[in-house]
Structure formats: C-alpha cells, structure tokens
C-alpha cells in the first residue's frame, strides 16, 4: 500500500512540474485560442501547428508573443515635459542673472540660445509579472532659440530636435526555445517648439510660464518566437515593423522666491505641469512571413505633476566671469490616472478579436536631484552644465545631462 501511495505521489508531482501545465500568460493564451477559431493565410498555418489547430502555445511563447512592447512605447517619453520645463526655467534664470550683472547693462535685450542634452534610461521588468517590457533607452538632442528682455519680463523660445533609441530586453531561453537578439526596438525622431516667459515680481520673487509641443515619428520593431505547446515543431521567428506619428504637448507654471545669505542663495519654488502624449495607430509589416503581424490602435497618456523644491546656489567671481555652482532638489507628486491602454488584433484573424493591453501603474511620487554650474561672463555670454537624476522610481533609472550657451547681442 505504501508503495502505491509513493507511485501516485510521483505521478502527481511530475504532472505538476510539466512545463505546459500552467500558462505563463493566461490572458494572451485565451486570446490566441479565440484567434485560432477563424484564422486565414499564414496565421492559419501557425494555428494548424498547434494541437488540434486550437492555438495552444508553449509557456515561453505566450510570454514572447504577448506584445507588451506596445505598452512600453510611451514610457520613454514621460520625462520630456519635465525636462523642457526645467530647461526653460534654467535659461530664464540665467537671463535674470546676466541682466543683474553690471557688465551687461549696456548690452541689448536680445539673446541667442544654444543647448544640447543627453538622456539615459533603464527599466527592469519581469516577464508576465509586469505588464511592460524592460528596456534600455538612450537619447540626445539640440536646441536653438532666442529670448527678449523687456522691463521685468523675459520672453523666449527654442526649437528642439531629439533622437531616442530604445532596445527591449532579451527574452529568457527555454526548452527548444532560443531567442536571438533583443525583443525589438523603438527609434523616435522629434522636432518641437518650447515657448516661455518669466517675470520678476519685486526684487526676489519670480513666476515662470512655459508651453511646448513636439511632433514625433516612431519606428517600431517587434521580435518574438512562435512555439506550439508540445515544443516538437521548430519555433517560428517573428519579425515585424511599423511606423506611427505622435505628439507631446505640455504647459507649466512655477513660482519661486530668493533668500540671500551673502554669496549663498536659497530658492524655494512650487509649480504644476500638465502634459499629454498621443501615439497614432499603426499596422505592422510582416518581415519574415510569420502570419503574426498586428494592428495597433492609437493610445494617449495624460499626466499632471505637482512640484515643490529648493535650489541652493553659491556665487563667486573669477577673472572674467561669475561662477555659480547649484544644487536643486524637487519632490514630484502626480495626480490623475496615468495608466495607458491600447487595443491590438492580428491582421489575419477573420473574427478581428481584440486584446486590450494595459501599462503598469506608475510611481506617483519621486525626487529629482540636479547639480551643475552656471557661468555668467562679463562680455554678454553665459552658460550652464547640469546633471539630473530621478530617485524613488521602482525598477527605473533615469539620468540627464544638459549644457547650454546664452549670448546677449
């Protein structure tokens, strides 16, 4: 009797650890069962490779085919409004400092602006636990513009160009399942306009306004593996691409006051930024005849950020310039709903079944820390160099370098 119980236990144990006993992504598996009810073309061939042509996938393939790249497509754009708003504030503050310098009082009210920046971002995500794909992002850009000083006001604007390249993390290998390369990529080229105005309210209080709009061209690549549940047929490589247009729009206002203690300045500030990111729908191209190309609907993300922080500066004179190292710490709190939903469907599904993808919940509180140097020359030029990083975001690291030059005519 004891031997019979041991035999039953071994059978149950071996069944419970069978790789295909539980779906790694049950939502996508159920969706693909529906897709295989009435497929056509090469999608029909893929469904026919599964048991009974029902669409049963291996657990690894459920993870791979789930197009969570779509859910991550807007994540790398989230910091754009903050970056441009802070950049406009830095430039206007630099203008105030230059105007206060006795050496620039005889110069004209018009200034030329030239800026550059570099962004690095890394998201760690767990497949089929998180709703989005992990990625590494790098970006760089240039800005050129003008500003004009009139009494207590500074009015300005700059045109921006930016390129971002995002590579999705490589998938984990499995039984007869060997992904090659990363799970796809997303390259974005953007051109935009930022307008800003700043006014001194008395000697030590200021208010800043900024507004921006960016138009972008997205180029997507998605990589995946199709594998039926028995893992007996060689996995099919999936390679698709697509292009879409997008838009970023934001508006911001902030208020600050300067407390001076000799060469030291302490500048508390508070502000609000509202932004909206829109991405048009697109149709994937099937690059290797897998039959698994998608239709992707449009998506939109809105965000309202409340900011409260303080900046510390210390000014000292050099031979030809005033040097001012700075440290800024901002607490950011988000209000409103920020989750993004996108509908996708397989192009060769005659029933046009739709899967609704949703992004992961975002962290609603974070801390931005920036440090740098502002230099105000005695002959009408000034410049800055800054490094910023964001703290308090789960699984996301973000770093930004900025440098700029302002020349008063």
Commentary on this structure:
- By secondary structure, the protein is an alpha+beta fold.
- It has six helices and 19 strands.
- It has helices at 2-16, 26-35, 41-48, 59-65, 69-72, 80-100; strands at 110-123, 135-150, 153-168, 184-201, 205-226, 236-257, 259-261, 264-279, 282-283, 285-286, 294-296, 299-314, 316-317, 321-335, 341-346, 355-358, 365-377, 381-391, 396-408.
- The strands form two sheets. The protein has a twelve-stranded antiparallel barrel with strand order 1-2-3-4-5-6-8-12-14-17-18-19. A four-stranded antiparallel beta sheet has the order 9-11-15-16.
- β15 (341-346) and β16 (355-358) form a beta hairpin.
- Residues 1-22 and 101-106 have low confidence and may be disordered.
> What is the overall number of helices?
6
Structural class: alpha+beta
Spatial extent as radius of gyration: 27 Å
Trace the largest sheet across and list its strands. Answer: 1-2-3-4-5-6-8-12-14-17-18-19
What is the strand tally? 19
Unreliable parts: 1-22, 101-106
Work out the strand percent.
over 45%
Distance between the termini: 98 Å
What is the overall pLDDT average?
86
- What letter string, H or E per element, gives the SSE order? HHHHHHEEEEEEEEEEEEEEEEEEE
What helical percentage do the residues reach?
10-25%
Shape: elongated
- What characterizes the major β-sheet? 12 strands, antiparallel, barrel
């Amino acid at each position: 009797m004891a031997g019979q119980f041991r035999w039953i236990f071994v059978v149950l144990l071996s069944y419970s650890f069978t790789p295909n006993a539980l779906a790694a992504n049950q939502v996508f598996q159920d969706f693909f069962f529906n897709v295989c009810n009435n497929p056509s073309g090469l999608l029909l061939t893929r469904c026919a490779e599964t048991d009974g042509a029902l669409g049963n996938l291996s657990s690894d393939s459920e993870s791979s085919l789930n197009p969570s790249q779509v859910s991550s497509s807007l994540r790398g754009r989230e910091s754009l409004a903050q970056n441009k708003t802070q950049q406009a504030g830095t430039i206007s503050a630099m203008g105030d400092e230059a105007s206060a310098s006795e050496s620039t009082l005889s110069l004209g009210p018009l200034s030329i602006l030239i800026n550059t920046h570099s962004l690095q971002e890394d998201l760690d995500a767990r497949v089929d636990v998180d709703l989005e794909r992990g990625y590494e992002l790098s970006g760089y850009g240039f800005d050129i513009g003008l500003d004009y000083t009139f009494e207590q006001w500074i009015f300005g604007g700059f045109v921006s160009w930016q390129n971002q390249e995002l590579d999705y993390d490589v998938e984990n290998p499995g039984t007869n399942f060997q992904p090659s390369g990363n799970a796809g990529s997303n390259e974005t080229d953007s051109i935009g306009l930022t307008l800003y105005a700043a006014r001194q309210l008395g000697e030590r209080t200021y208010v800043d306004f900024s507004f921006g709009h960016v138009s972008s061209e997205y180029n997507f690549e998605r990589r995946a593996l199709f594998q039926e549940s028995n893992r007996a047929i060689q996995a099919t490589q999936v390679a698709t691409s697509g292009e879409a247009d997008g838009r970023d729009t934001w508006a911001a206002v902030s208020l600050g006051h300067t407390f001076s203690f000799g060469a030291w300045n302490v500048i508390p500030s508070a502000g609000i930024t509202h932004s909206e990111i829109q991405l048009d729908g697109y149709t994937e191209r099937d690059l290797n005849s897998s039959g698994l190309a998608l239709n992707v609907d449009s998506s939109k993300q809105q965000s309202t950020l409340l900011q409260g922080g303080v900046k510390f500066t210390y000014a000292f004179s050099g031979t030809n310039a005033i040097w001012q190292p700075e440290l800024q710490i901002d607490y950011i709190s988000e209000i409103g709903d920020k989750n993004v939903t996108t509908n996708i469907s397989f192009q060769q599904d005659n029933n046009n079944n739709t899967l609704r993808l949703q992004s992961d919940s975002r962290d609603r509180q974070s801390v931005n820390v920036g440090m740098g140097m502002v230099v105000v020359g005695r002959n009408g030029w000034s410049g800055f160099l800054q490094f910023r990083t964001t703290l308090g975001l789960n699984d996301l690291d973000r770093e930004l370098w900025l440098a700029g030059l302002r020349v008063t005519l």
